[in-house]
Q: What sequence folds into this?
């Protein structure tokens, strides 16, 4: 299986592919059925998280002890997915629990991408002491794994009072997870900036007197977008499962708000008692979402780095 | 080479110092915002002022700076560094030395890591190399699909499902088929047994290794693919070397450089995974201790264990840097 | 300085690879005939080489000349069995002393590489493995294929470095490729190709990546080694200026085909193909006559066709100043234009006559 690449060979292969990398990536993604299914799944759960009342009219907080532990009754009945040990409707909890789980994931990944891109860009572009500081900070945060940091900080701040609004319940986990999730992006961006910086057209732009900000945004950043984009879906999936772990330890999203993690934690106690559905419904939602995101991430990685195909 | 190692070691020490300072700042800040962690010592009882003062003194929390929000409390930090230097990492809420706890717990974590490493190596190197070798063939597609599937089941979910759904029937089956004292019965025992550490660690270790292997498979595949397309591989082939020789000495050897670098990064993830695994499977290891300490709000123990783990991580990263230089002469002579 | 190569290297494994001993001057070593190579991509099939043929003779140097993308590198990779997975040989043969290499199973084909046909690549920095010492790479094939001992291998590595005139060879075998300068690295590359004393050496743009002053030295070295060992040398280049000094025969390629084949002196005196003529005119010369009336250097107008978009008829017709209707429809065959030389042009006699007259 010899696979040399001479410029000549590369030219021969690239002949009819006159498309840009982005267009090419889009072209390839569209042709994969698994990607389409994954997009549909992610979009579905995003809608659930945004408007849970579309899927259930029951209030997840209205629990009737007398109706506890009803097995799933099927669609059309009062409790399609049954009720939990406190008599709360499982479907209502699932629908309303999607919001904190997904919102947390999006907030954490969004914030860490911004932090990572800015710091990586500055470090790679200016090098010198800026790079020295950023690299050291990256290393410091890398030494403490995300989960260890979350365990430490959330248990330290466990008793700090926060409100009960949509953002308030995820505030602490969001801050902590963001604090320890940005380094990957910074490293990737820094690496691709270093690569792009010495390209001839960047040197030319600098020689023509373009400002640093302009060079960074117009010439250097676009090179870094690819690798960062490919990381995002997998990172969102990672935060969703991290939320479940934190919930299991009682330091994630705060009750009385429900999240998938909290439901999984509560459900796991009832598996052996013949109420496996209490675990399997929230776990199924989580696995399905994570799987869809992972498939998306894998497809993006492929599409944006054709060498790996 | 010597200078390179020295430089890396100094940078590592600096990193560790900053890590400890960051940890200190965060704890201080938490105490200032959150109230006195010494109160946790008393649980639901309401202590007298004298009792609180005594406990505060014992945990070094009697410095007035802990009452002033925003004060970085440099004094206590320096004191703590001093006691760390003497090997004193404080005590837990019950007064047991943190170093003592770690000393008894660490061997089990090391055993877990051994199982994880073997799983990683077998799955990652094996499947990754096979996928790269037969790129684009059904085998490659199958391996890549499996790696995506593995990713969809984070370690937490794997363990949850194993522990609550599979462990009980499996261990029941193993006990009735092979007898209660058989190896198989121990393998599937849903909780850790100090008398049979290896047997009861095996399944959780394999699961943890499996959960982390997806990234490893992809990495090995990607770096071998890059090596395969390298011009030096074409040169080696043009010299008439048999394909097996080319794969071993030019593909696997060259791809080992990025793989080793990544092992350093995945180490911290494995550490986090070990905390979850040991916590959920009741394994008495560093992670299990940490897990229980979080549940019991034992801040001193959490800080102590996290500091020790951070130190271990810094050392691992240093070892990786040295291995990197040993594998790539361009780094060594730079 | 130059040490002769001990012959024992060749003897150990000679039975199974069809080795027939020393080379006689004028013996045909490698004969490529009607070779065609295709690339398969997502967007269809592209023919990179189409019906190429040439002959490599012991003691002579053949230059394969053409612009980038004309298929000269791809054709030599095909001979070596080193085509990328997307490419495959669809037609033709490459006979080494009668054995068709392209018809052999890959593992048997590989055995001929290095020992009978060896290759020198353009970019020595990329083509040498950065993680192994130069000494290791020089004798890797020797050790892996003949089971030479570590001590013998090291002695041989030093010999090889001496042969290509790398100073302080005994110390430098322990260094890594990145510690060598560009010219020295290319010498190492050449030495590693010579390790098994090959009969035919294919050098793919061996000096393109080097400084001009170093280029001449490396080319000189290649010519010396070739003459001394009676090897057949295939020199792939886009630079007709390089060819003049070292080559004996020239094959000019255009869009995957040979358009002219001739001994070097005759080709320079009177090209028989308009493309060759245009190439020769664009080589700068000091002694006047090379420039046109304005004192400017003439260039070949237009651009070479992209593989896969080769024009109908004669592929060169859009750029040719002689093009007539027949050139747009009929592919000119490679035919004898004069004794000992051939040209693929409908009007080769006219071109030849014009050049002489």
A:
């Amino acid at each position: 299986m010899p696979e040399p690449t001479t410029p000549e060979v590369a030219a021969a292969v690239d002949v009819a592919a006159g498309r840009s990398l982005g267009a090419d990536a889009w072209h390839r993604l569209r042709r994969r059925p698994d990607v389409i299914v994954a997009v549909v799944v992610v979009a579905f759960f995003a809608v659930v998280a945004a408007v849970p009342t579309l899927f259930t009219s029951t209030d997840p907080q209205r629990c009737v002890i007398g109706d506890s532990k009803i097995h799933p009754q099927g669609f059309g009945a009062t409790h399609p997915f049954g009720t939990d040990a406190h008599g709360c409707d499982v479907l209502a909890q699932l629908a309303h629990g999607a919001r904190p789980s997904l919102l947390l994931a999006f907030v954490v990944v969004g914030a860490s991408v911004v932090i990572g891109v800015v710091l990586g860009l500055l470090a790679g572009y200016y090098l010198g002491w800026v790079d020295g500081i950023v690299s050291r900070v990256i290393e410091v945060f890398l030494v403490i794994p995300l989960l260890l940091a979350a365990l430490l900080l959330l248990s330290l701040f466990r008793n700090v009072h926060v409100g009960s609004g949509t953002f308030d319940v995820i505030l602490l986990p969001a801050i902590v997870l963001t604090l320890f999730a940005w380094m990957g992006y910074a490293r990737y961006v820094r690496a691709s900036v270093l690569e792009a910086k010495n390209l001839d057209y960047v040197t030319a732009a600098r020689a023509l007197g373009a400002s640093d900000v302009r060079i960074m945004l117009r010439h250097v950043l676009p090179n870094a977008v690819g690798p960062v984009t490919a990381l995002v879906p997998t990172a969102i999936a990672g935060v969703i499962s991290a939320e479940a772990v934190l919930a299991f330890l009682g330091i994630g999203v705060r009750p009385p708000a429900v999240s998938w993690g909290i439901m999984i934690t509560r459900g796991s106690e009832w598996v052996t008692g013949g109420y496996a559905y209490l675990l399997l419904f929230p776990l199924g939602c989580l696995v399905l979402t994570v799987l869809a995101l992972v498939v998306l991430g894998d497809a993006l990685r492929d599409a944006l780095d054709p060498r790996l195909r | 080479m010597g200078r390179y190692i020295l430089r890396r070691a100094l940078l590592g020490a600096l990193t560790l110092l900053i890590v400890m300072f960051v940890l200190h700042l965060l704890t201080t800040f938490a105490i200032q915002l959150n109230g006195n962690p010494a109160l946790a010592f008393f649980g639901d009882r309401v202590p007298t002022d004298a009792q609180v003062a005594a406990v505060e003194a014992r945990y070094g929390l009697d410095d007035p700076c802990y009452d002033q929000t925003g004060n970085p409390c440099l004094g206590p930090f320096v004191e703590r560094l001093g006691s760390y230097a003497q090997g004193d990492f404080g005590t837990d809420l019950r007064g047991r030395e943190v170093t003592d706890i770690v000393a008894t717990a660490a061997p089990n974590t090391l055993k877990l890591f051994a199982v994880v490493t073997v799983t990683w190596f077998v799955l990652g190197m094996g499947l990754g190399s096979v996928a790269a070798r037969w790129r684009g063939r059904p085998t490659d597609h199958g391996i890549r699909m499996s790696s995506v599937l593995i990713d969809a089941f984070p370690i937490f979910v794997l363990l949850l499902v194993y522990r609550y759904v599979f462990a009980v029937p499996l261990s029941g089956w193993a006990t009735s088929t092979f007898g209660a004292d058989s190896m198989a019965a121990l393998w599937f025992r849903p909780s850790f047994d100090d008398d049979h550490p290896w047997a009861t660690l095996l399944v959780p270790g394999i699961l943890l290794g499996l959960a982390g292997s997806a990234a490893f498979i992809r990495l090995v595949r990607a770096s071998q693919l890059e090596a395969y397309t390298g011009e030096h591989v074409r040169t080696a082939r043009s010299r008439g070397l048999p394909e097996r020789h080319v794969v071993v000495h030019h593909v696997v050897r060259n791809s080992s450089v990025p793989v080793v670098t990544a092992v350093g990064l995945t180490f911290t993830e494995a550490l986090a995974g070990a905390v979850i695994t040991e916590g959920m499977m009741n394994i008495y290891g560093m992670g299990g201790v940490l897990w229980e300490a979080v549940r019991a709000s034992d801040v001193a123990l959490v800080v102590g264990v996290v500091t020790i783990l951070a130190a271990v991580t810094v050392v691992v990263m240093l070892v990786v840097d040295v291995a990197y230089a040993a594998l790539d002469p361009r780094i060594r002579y730079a | 300085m130059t040490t002769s190569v001990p012959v024992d290297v060749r003897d150990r494994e000679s039975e199974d690879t069809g080795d027939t001993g020393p080379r006689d001057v004028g013996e045909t070593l490698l004969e490529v005939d009607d070779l065609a190579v295709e690339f398969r991509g997502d967007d269809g099939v592209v023919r990179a080489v189409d019906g190429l043929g040439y002959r490599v003779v012991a003691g002579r140097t053949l230059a394969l000349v053409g612009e980038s993308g004309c298929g000269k590198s791809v054709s030599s990779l095909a001979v070596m069995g080193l085509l990328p997975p997307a490419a495959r040989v669809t037609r033709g043969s490459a006979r080494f002393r009668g054995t068709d290499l392209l018809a052999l199973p890959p593992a048997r084909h590989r055995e001929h590489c290095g020992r009978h046909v060896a290759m020198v690549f353009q970019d020595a920095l990329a083509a040498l493995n950065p993680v192994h010492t130069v000494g290791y790479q020089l004798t890797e094939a020797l050790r892996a294929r003949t089971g030479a001992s570590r001590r013998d291998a090291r002695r041989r590595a030093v010999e090889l470095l001496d042969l290509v005139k790398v100073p302080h060879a005994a110390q430098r075998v322990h260094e890594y490729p990145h510690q060598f300068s560009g010219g020295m690295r290319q010498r190492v590359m050449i030495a590693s190709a010579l390790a098994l004393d090959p009969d035919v050496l294919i050098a793919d743009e061996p000096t393109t990546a080097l400084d001009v002053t170093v280029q001449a030295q490396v080319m000189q070295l290649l010519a010396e080694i070739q003459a001394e060992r009676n090897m057949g040398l295939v020199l792939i280049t886009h630079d007709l200026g390089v060819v003049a000094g070292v080559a004996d025969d020239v094959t000019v390629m255009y869009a995957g085909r040979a358009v002219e084949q001739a001994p070097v002196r005759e080709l320079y005196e009177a090209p028989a193909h308009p493309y060759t003529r245009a190439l020769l005119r664009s080589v700068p010369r000091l002694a006047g006559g090379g420039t046109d009336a304005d004192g400017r250097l003439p260039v070949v107008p237009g651009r070479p066709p992209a593989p896969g978009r080769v024009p109908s008829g004669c592929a060169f017709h859009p750029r040719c100043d002689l093009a007539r209707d027949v050139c747009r429809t009929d592919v000119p065959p490679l035919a004898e234009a004069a004794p000992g030389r051939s040209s693929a042009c409908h009007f080769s006699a006219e071109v030849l006559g014009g050049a002489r007259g």
